[in-house]
Q: What sequence folds into this?
């Protein structure tokens, strides 16, 4: 009899121990889940709305920052009238940009250039100014190095992407009026500081009047038919740069103005801005 009582007592004590252990594990799991939820909420609060939207549905003008502090603006898909119409030339044609992309809000600065490249070729060395005096090949090399460092794909914009972004909301107009007073002086001794002009409707700075900006395309005549994401000729002698130069004549500041330059040549009035492709 005493033996039976002893066995029942042992089983009762063991059952209480098991229940306590299960309850403790359940409480620990619940506490861990709550901690994870708090951490995720904290992480989300630390992000800007634009950073969160890049994985959802970004809007035109939203800003995203990469790992080295470069700002990129969301450029939505759309269609525009590319080219110029003058008494001597009518190069206008419809272009469709079939997918959105992130474009540098500013030109690449000397500070951002120095973070990846061994030398700074700019005439006036100042971290806050756009890098200049860079040739096309060096700009492509910079994009490749940044891609390896940051994990995203970076590249030069096509000239269609550049003109589309420059025109922004005025997509079906030809060469909108600009602030002429800023562009009709003699060439300045150094590139205009970033932010010298008001942002365009898509929040981009210095699309006109900063430094000229390399594009990815070879120079060639336009195809007059409607184009979808044109990338220019397969080969050529000159590469395109766009954007005019601070202090240059007004005609050089038009959104449609094209400049051709040998890709291995340098100019202290030419720099670049870059595209970050969507994953």
A:
């Amino acid at each position: 009899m005493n033996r039976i009582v002893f066995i029942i007592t042992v089983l009762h004590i063991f059952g209480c121990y098991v229940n306590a252990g299960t309850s403790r594990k359940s409480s620990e799991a619940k506490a861990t889940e709550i901690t994870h939820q708090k951490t995720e909420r904290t992480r989300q609060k630390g992000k800007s709305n634009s950073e969160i939207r890049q994985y959802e549905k970004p809007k035109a003008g939203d800003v995203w920052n990469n790992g080295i502090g470069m700002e990129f603006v969301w450029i939505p898909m759309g269609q525009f009238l590319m080219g110029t119409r003058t008494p001597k030339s009518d190069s206008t044609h419809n272009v469709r940009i079939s997918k959105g992309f992130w474009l540098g809000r500013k030109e690449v600065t000397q500070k951002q250039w120095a973070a990846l490249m061994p030398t700074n070729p700019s005439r006036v060395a100042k971290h806050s100014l756009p890098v200049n005096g860079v040739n096309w090949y060096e700009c492509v090399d910079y994009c490749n190095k940044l891609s390896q460092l940051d994990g995203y794909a970076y590249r030069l914009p096509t000239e269609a992407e550049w003109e589309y972004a420059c025109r922004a909301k005025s997509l079906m107009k030809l060469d909108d009026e600009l602030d002429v007073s800023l562009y009709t002086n003699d060439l300045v001794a150094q590139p205009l500081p970033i932010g010298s002009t008001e942002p365009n409707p898509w929040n981009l700075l210095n699309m006109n009047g900063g430094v000229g900006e390399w594009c990815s395309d070879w120079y060639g005549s336009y195809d007059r038919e409607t184009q979808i994401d044109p990338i220019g000729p397969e080969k050529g002698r000159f590469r395109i740069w766009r954007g005019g130069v601070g202090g240059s004549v007004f005609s050089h500041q038009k959104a449609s103005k094209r400049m051709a330059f040998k890709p291995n040549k340098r100019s202290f009035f030419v720099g670049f801005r870059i595209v970050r492709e969507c994953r």
Q: What stands out?
A: The radius of gyration is 28 Å. The first helix runs from residue 2 to 45.
